Amino acid sequence: MHVFLKIVTFSCFLLFSLFAFSAVEEVVLPPILDYYPNCEYQVIKETSVIGMAKTQQMAKTTKRLLNQLQQKAIDAGANGVIIIDKKIEDLDVLDEKGGQQQIRFFAKLILQCQQEKIATKIGTPNVIHQRFTAYNHEGVKAKSMMTFKLTSANSRVGRPEIINTEISLANGLYGVKLGDSYQQVINNFGEPNVQLTILADELIIGYGRHHWLHFQLDKLVKVQSTLPYLSASILNKIPLLDFFDANAWKINNKVGRKALLKDVYPALALDKPLNEKNQLVLNSQDKVLTLNFIASKNSHTNEKKYTLGGFSMEQSNYKESRMLPFDDQVIQNEAITQAYLALVSNKEINVNNLAEQLGEAKGRIVLPRGITINIYNQHLMLKLNANELVEIHLLEEVFLNANDNANSNSKAIWALGDFIQGGSFEQLQKSFPDDAYESNYGIEIPSVGYSLFLLFDDYNKGKPLYEAVISVY
Fold first, then answer.
1. Separation of alpha carbons 97 and 339, rounded Å
2. In a designed cystine with 222, which of 170, 214, 303, 346 is the match (CB 3.0 to 4.6 A)?
3. Tens digit of pLDDT for each residue in 91-144?
4. What confidence score (pLDDT) does residue 151 get?
5. From CA 290, how far away is CA 85, in angstroms rounded?
6. Mean predicted lDDT score pLDDT of the chain
7. DSSP code of 57?
8. What is the number of alpha carbons within 13 Å of residue 320 lying toward its C-beta?
9. Cα dihedral 246, 320, 236, 145 in deg (nearest 10)
10. Rounded CA separation 256/161 (Å)
11. Which residues make Cβ contacts (< 8 Å) with residue 110, sequence separation at least 6?
């Protein structure tokens, strides 16, 4: 009897130990961070997860996918997860319980730095503000702000503080007026995080994703809240900026974003109707301010309402410059092909020579921690950390309407050895090496010193190749 009790006791102890071990394992899952750490952290890997669910099961599927990301972090040796994008698509699959949706999360698996020690000292005089990342630990967009103490008194304290939220014909954009010089704008707003030279004789700079300023002959000639030239995938790569992406602007200091048209009329003392583009156009002697409204309809009452969505303001004599042709794209594509072949041959890429072959970039996006994205044509971007090449990114479309330019060779096809843009999955599969593997989002080909990631369009016949990313280590 005593022996039996000992066996039962020992068995219970083992089971308790196993349960305790499992509980510990669940507790130490790498956290999904709702901010970009304000210090140097290491990205171990970029990855994604995908799942399908009916609407009523979305929360359960989301939780499962986020858990998969945490498990991937453990497998990769990471101790943190940053979700950088989320996409939900309706699928053409219907049954008696309704349709299905496909959800994808894209994430960075990272080794965290000493962020926690910095974040505890909030509210000290020497601070900068950092916006939370797009998504929190529940896969929901975060909107909060955080304040971190700088690591040293000599650190750069970002751009000038802006407290003026007025947009008006009389006073311009937050105190900056049409006709001001480029340097005057920089003095007021600080350095932009986007610069584009895709228009002839016109420079476009961007602050975050919702403020675009146009210069001709070193004079500010136009400002607008949306830019019609960049594809959505590129806009999503632009870091959000404090103030500029908060949409705190007020037209004449009276009405702001999402204001109803019926409230705008009395506030601005207007009675003119919207034009065919759902715009209110206000004129002065030499300037034009356009308010863009978004129309929506109540499905029950069929009542239409109009909400203020954005703005543009320009000099009356402003004429938009033509988009420049991408005449060097064939040469640039060949330079990238040769750089890829050098990697395949276990040779280093000479970044200075590559930069000389590519010529001047058409655009530049400044990312945190000294990283930049240089845009060279409709399909090519290079990510650099200081002077080190981090990534070569070939994609389907950077600039909208670029292919409409009759003098441009922006339709030029890019190729990385046997992997040709538009090639079918079945055709290119023959060139996959033995160690290639399929992730939830594409084909990854690891190698010494670099990896190649290929993305295929599952929704088009033949699953054509539409994007490729070379990560250089």
1. 52
2. 214
3. 765 555 556 788 989 888 999 876 443 332 222 223 333 344 567 777 876 543
4. 29
5. 32
6. 83
7. G
8. 12
9. -10
10. 20
11. 37, 41, 42, 43, 44, 78, 79, 80, 81, 82
Place of tokens 């961007």: 206
Run of H or E residues at 452: strand 450-456
Contact 390, 371 (CB under 8 A): yes
Task: Please name which of 324, 336, 316, 335 lies closest in space to residue 404, comparing C-alpha atoms.
Answer: 324
Tally the C-alpha atoms within 13 A of residue 239's C-alpha that lie toward its C-beta. 19
**Residue type, position 319, single letter:** K
- Kind of pairing between the strands at 255-256 and 279-283: unpaired
Concatenate the DSSP letters of all residues of 331-394 into one string. HHHHHHHHHHHHHHTT----HHHHHHHH-S-SEEEEPGGGEEEEE-SSSEEEEEETTEEEEEEE
End-to-end CA distance of the chain: 65
Tokens found for residue 393: 């990114």
CB 437 within 8 A of CB 444: yes
Q: What does the pLDDT look like over 160-177, one tens digit per residue?
A: 999 999 999 999 999 999
Strand positions, DSSP E, 62-208: 80-95, 98-111, 127-131, 145-149, 166-168, 172-173, 194-199, 202-206
The number of angstroms, rounded, from the C-alpha of 311 to the middle of its chain's C-alpha atoms is 22
Query: Beta-carbon neighbour count of residue 323 at 10 Å?
Result: 21
- Which two tokens mark 431? 């060139």
